[in-house]
Amino acid sequence: MKTVDTYNFAGKKALVRVDFNVPLDKEYNITDDTRIKATIPTVLKIVNDGGSAILMSHLGRPKGGPEEKYSLKHILPALKEAFGRDVKFADDCIGQSATDLAASLQPGEILLLENLRFYKEEEKGDVAFAEKLAKLGDVWVNDAFGTAHRAHASTAVMGQFFEDRVAGYVMNAELANAKKILEEAERPFTAIMGGAKISDKILIIEKLLDTVDNLIIGGGMTYTFTKALGGQIGKSLLEADKQELALELLKKAEAKGVKIYMPVDNLCADDFSNDANRQIVPTGQIPDGWEGLDIGPDTIELFKEVVLKSKTILWNGPMGVFEFENFAHGTNAIAEAVVKATEENGAFSLIGGGDSASAVNQAGYGDRVSYVSTGGGALLEYMEGKVLPGVAALE
């Protein structure tokens, strides 16, 4: 696989697939710029070599055609600040404006194309659409690990139109850090799995049971385990059809000698809101009309103890509804423990994208763990052993 380090971009127009799918508020301000910052080294390497960069990305999920709220023009001020130079903008990703601006691009200049997903052909992996995009540049750089598990036109299909296919710094770092967890994990190795649904995490949990020493289960999916074990969960989140599976996973863990840690108490609310009434109850004793929205104080202490003894930590998914300040304590406490294990005990910690990355960055710990992945779904699929089309297209 060619990498940006080994490639000279002098005089080349690099067509760079980036992941600028960043969260925006109602005024179009970026609320988390992690993904933009991550691309700075790749883009600057291209322009400093004397090449020019044509950036292409998706944003959100447009319903089939241009939508103002999903226009990439909203992120231009952030890009200018990140790259320390003006960034030109094409109001289309193919068509005349894109062609003309790409053709007139000078060495050292940067052009951003409009949202790729304004064309349904992007997600369909349409070959003709990929070819139109490919005509804009001389070399294809894929730095969008977060979409590498999709066989879309810009993330995989267009690779066939280039002799030179290059992995960006983000792509490289993501693969290197995932391999470190999969192949070189120092023990004890602890995986922390949170989030809402078991169904989203079955494959990764099964895969991890072959490698981890400890598996901490938190977040909304714990209530399905609790219910399967005969506990009362009130109106907490439940995947009723996954209870059998939950029990199977526990049996498999036991058979493989993996220690499973689940909440011993929960912070409950009588409504799904930050201002709801709250009470702490032992796991399996949530009253009717109440729902678990975070792990309780005893669970926090239990989980922290396991994390602090670990030498390798993989974390994917929050411990509760961290978007509500009153139910973010569990997630923040785990983040603190992961930072402490990393900084004081020399543990290697990988935060697996998505909500976990947002939570860690929100708490201000992003630069105090070993690596924060930019791709939640892509990282999980890679660790499950699946072939990622965006990675295969570079090989």
From TrEMBL:
Parts of the chain that traverse the membrane: none
Catalytic activity: (2R)-3-phosphoglycerate + ATP = (2R)-3-phospho-glyceroyl phosphate + ADP
Signal peptide (residue range): none
Main location: cytoplasm
Enzyme class at the top of the EC tree: transferase
CDD domains (UniProt xref): Phosphoglycerate_kinase
Chain residues that bind (2R)-3-phosphoglycerate: R35, R117, R150
Protein name: Phosphoglycerate kinase
Phylogenetic lineage: Bacteria, Pseudomonadati, Bacteroidota, Cytophagia, Cytophagales
Gene that this polypeptide is encoded by: pgk
